Amino acid sequence: MIRNDNLPKTQYKNPVLYGDYSDPDAIRVGSDYYMVSSSFSNSPAIPVLHSKDLINWKVINYVCPQIPEERYFEPTHGCGVWAPSLRYHNNLYYCYFPMPDEGIYVSTTPDITGKWSDPVKILSGAGYIDPCPFWDDDRKAYLICAVAFSRCGRKSILLLTTMSEDGLSLTGEFRIIYDANNTENETLEGPKLYKRNGFYYIFAPAGGVKAGHQVVLRSRNIYGPYECRIVLKQGKSDVNGPHQGAWVDTLNGENYFLHFQDVYAGGRIVHMQPLTWVDDWPVIGSFAPGESFGEPVTEYAKPAGAEYVTQTRPDCDDSFQSSSLGLQWQWNANYENSWYEIRPELGMLLMPVYKEDKRPLSDVKNLLLQKWPAPEFDCETVMDLSKLGPGCQAGIVSLGQSYAGICVSRTALDEYRLCLIKGYQHYLKTGERDSSEYNFNNHTSHTEETTESIPIDSERLKDAGYLVTFRIFVRIREYRNHLDRTDYLGREQWAMHIPSEEIILSCFDSEIAIPALAGRWVGVKNGVFCFGNSKTAGGPAVVKSVKYKFIH
User: Measured between alpha carbons, how far apart are the two ends of the chain, in Å?
Assistant: First the structure.
């Protein structure tokens, strides 16, 4: 976890949120700040975070208990809920979110910590992404969005249409208001629409997630034409991207820009940049001599009053003493209540789910997962396996494109074995095989998986009271530069200073080591599981505790 303990109370350090909270959008309501982010195929969907100072964030809710559409009751890597937007209008919180294979949805609530309305699909069809609503001074409502090449064969354009005043239906046809094809701003996406001093502003990332930059478009007319400026680039900093985010002001009139940085295996972590206005253009980050764009800052002055806010972060440890599942946890697909039971006096019971014999671990539905909370860490999970039934297995998983699991299984002959699982997900076009590290642009996957089984002395388990400790270690081995793409002129675009991590899973005297590779659009996740291969499977495993130690 990147902490600010050793800084003066008036300073903060980036990233402000080390966790895979990709595509963040944020707003201020009174003196409170709220943020939402993508959740892809994990449920519950769309985390809602709260802060009092833009630096310390806590998950307080989810917009959707389940991902809309039936297909998400199976793991559907890379699909699901992409970049959402959050707005407050007429005493309602609105969350607009795209599902690039299905359409655009909206959910509302008068209480951001309470129940959100069932999502309303306001647009059907594949390819529409990154919607953002806007209510103008005359109360007319609009929706801006981008398009995904992987779904509709188009990219780098921004679309605008009108909505009903309540924001729950579209009333017009989409018009192209900006086309960045064949320019340095190709792959323009993630638009956020604002208004200031009579100008309409669109904040949007361009140039790709890992080696791109931020642009701002400006016009006196909401339909354009728009002027365009690049306002934030990696430059000589260590922050590649920097990508999609939100402009937020404070009660004291200060301005900041929240955005994410893709650190590959660790996912898309959140930074905060100072923002000032000069000649009705935003100036973001710090300006290097002779440059027309800003660069991300490492440290900066906190917003006024932030020195009095208690330092906090999203939860990661869990001793399962609450009556409900902690908000740090998400499932590998839409979940069923039968998958777990909370008993505060015992821990959390993970109930067996009867998986198909040939299903790879990466596609098991009831993997209970959480994001990496730091660049380097140890994670210790203690399970009580005294009730583990014949045909069941329980353990831990590290889930990315390269993944691993280590678990204890109980055989039908009442023997115990330690299973070491390794796998790799290839994201492929139909009929193709491609072993490249980051081939995320296709719809189907092929998984290669191997399992090694080692006998466990049952007396050893019995002597330990059937308590088993599983561990995950994550360490950065080196930093490297990564060629992300070539632009429309054939120029190489590099992401610089990228961490390369190793993941080690261990139990008893055995361990598995794998390279850390991000999943499809998401960072690596840690998790726990318990399942059986037949309907004669027995009782559950009890997860007693999950504890993290951060390596500084």
Answer: 8
- Per cent of the chain over pLDDT 90 is 75
Alpha carbons 247 and 196: distance in angstroms, whole number: 12
- Tens-digit pLDDT profile for residues 369-382: 999 999 999 999 99
Phi-psi region of 112 (alpha: psi -120 to 50; beta: other; left: phi over 0): alpha
Q: What SS3 string covers 330-347?
A: EECCCCCHHHEEEECCCE
Helix (H, G, I), strand (E, B), or coil: what is residue 434? coil
* CA 532 to centroid of chain Cα atoms: 29
Contacts of 370 (CB under 8 A, 6+ apart): 316, 328, 329, 330, 525, 526, 527
Report whether 44 contacts 62 (CB < 8 A). yes
Q: Mean pLDDT throughout 468-490?
A: 92
Kindly give the residue spans of alpha helices, DSSP state H, lying in 458-520.
458-463
Q: Answer yes or no: are the C-beta atoms of 373 and 16 closer than 8 Å.
A: no
User: Does 41 have pLDDT greater than 80?
Assistant: yes
Q: Which residues of 280-313 are buried (b: 16+ CB within 10 A; e: fewer)?
A: eebbbbbeeeeeebbbbbeebebbeebeebeeeb
- The mean per-residue pLDDT over the stretch 476-502 comes to 90
Q: State residue 533's pLDDT score.
A: 65
**Is the per-residue pLDDT at 124 higher than 50?**
yes
Q: Which residues form the catalytic set?
A: 23, 189
Which residues touch 447 (CB under 8 Å, ≥6 apart)? Answer: 360, 362, 363, 423, 424, 425, 426
Check: CB of residue 334 under 8 Å from CB of residue 67. yes
**277: its two tokens:** 């206005």
Alpha-carbon 398 to chain mean position: 16
Lookup: tokens for 291: 């440059």
CB atoms within 10 A of CB 460: 10
Contact 255, 249 (CB under 8 A): yes
**pLDDT at position 434:** 39
- Chain centroid to CA 360: 23
Distance of CA 530 to the CA centre of its chain: 24
Each residue of 318-334: pLDDT tens digit? 998 888 899 999 999 99
pLDDT digits (tens, 9 = 90+) for 496-550: 889 999 999 999 999 999 999 999 999 999 999 988 865 555 678 889 999 999 9
**Residue 202, C-beta contacts closer than 8 angstroms, at least 6 positions apart:** 144, 158, 178, 191, 192, 193, 194, 216, 217, 218, 226
Mean pLDDT of the region 70-76: 94
The answer to whether the beta carbons of residues 320 and 349 sit under 8 Å apart is: no
